[in-house]
Amino acid sequence: MWLPWVKTRPSSATSTSTSSTALVASASPRLSFSSPSLKDLQALLLSDPAAPSPPPAAPCSPSSVRVFHRVRVAASALRALRTLQAPPSGAAANEADRRVVLYFTSLHVVRSTYEDCRAVRAILRGLRVSVDERDLAMDPRYLQELAALLPRAARRVTLPQVFVGGRHLGGAEEVRRLHEAGELRRVVAGAGGASLAACGRCGGERYVLCGSCNGSHKRYSVKGGGGFRTCAGCNENGLVRCPDCSPPDV
User: Fold this and answer.
1) How deeply is 237 buried, as exposed, middle or buried, from its count of CB atoms within 10 A (0-12, 13-18, 19+)?
2) Backbone angles phi and psi of 213, in degrees to 5
3) What is the mean pLDDT of the chain?
4) What values do phi and psi take at 192, rounded to 5?
């Protein structure tokens, strides 16, 4: 059965075949044949045997994936370096231009936070540089100090946080990226070397009992009729920073 655009007026067999061929040839210059059929027309209209099929896409090799990962890590490290804040001005800048300060927590309450703090401490200690470690679990006053140092855009204080020379380096993700890219050692190069042996006074904990109140955070005072007063020389846990291995606050 012919399609509507192929049908012609009934006549002799020869005239019908000739007129049908002329109509098909005028509709498409490529369709030049003498006695077409429906199967031939469908095959010619749906596919072109002369057109080459596109080659299949080659799968990504493992080497290209590794190269892409290295480029991504390097780009992230460069972005982290560009976002460093300006160093502090004044006399404090000369004292803190080489110091590496780490705010972290030693509590195991939130596992992800504890694991990030432990990983960052291990990375910095592996570089053998002097790090001023400030544990918020030992001294809660560091929380307000850290909140004042962080940018205003950071609404929520997260741990750990690293500062180099008074400039905010970032958290655990930024430290990992810089370490993988090999840039972290260059950033903390001026911090000075750290002792491999643990402190003989605090055992590496960086805190000791207050010598004025013996860790009670209370002192007896004869002023005002006598009585116990809060010790001003230690934190609320009755601890002070170890004078042998912890640098003074700047």
Assistant:
1) middle
2) -120, 0
3) 75
4) 90, 160
- Report yes or no: 143 and 157 within 8 Å, Cβ to Cβ: yes
How far is the C-alpha of 158 from the C-alpha of 142, rounded, in Å? 13
Q: Whole-angstrom Cα distance, residue 15 to residue 39? A: 22
**Amino acid identity, residue 38?**
L
- Burial letters 152-185, b for 16+ CB under 10 A, else e: eeeeeeebbbbbbbbbbbbbbebbbbbbebebbe
Two tokens at 216? Answer: 């009670």
Residues in contact with 199: Cβ distance below 8 Å, sequence separation at least 6, in sequence order: 206, 242, 244, 245
247 pLDDT band, cuts 50/70/90, is confident
What's the whole-model pTM score?
0.62
Six token digits for residue 121: 């401490």
Rg of the chain over all Cα atoms, to the nearest angstrom: 39
- Rounded to whole angstroms, the Cα distance separating 133 from 129 reads 12
Span 61-109, pLDDT tens digits: 666 656 655 666 556 655 555 555 444 444 444 445 678 999 999 999 9
The percent of the chain in helix, strand and coil, each rounded to the nearest 5, is 40, 15, 50
Token pair 């679990």 is found at 137
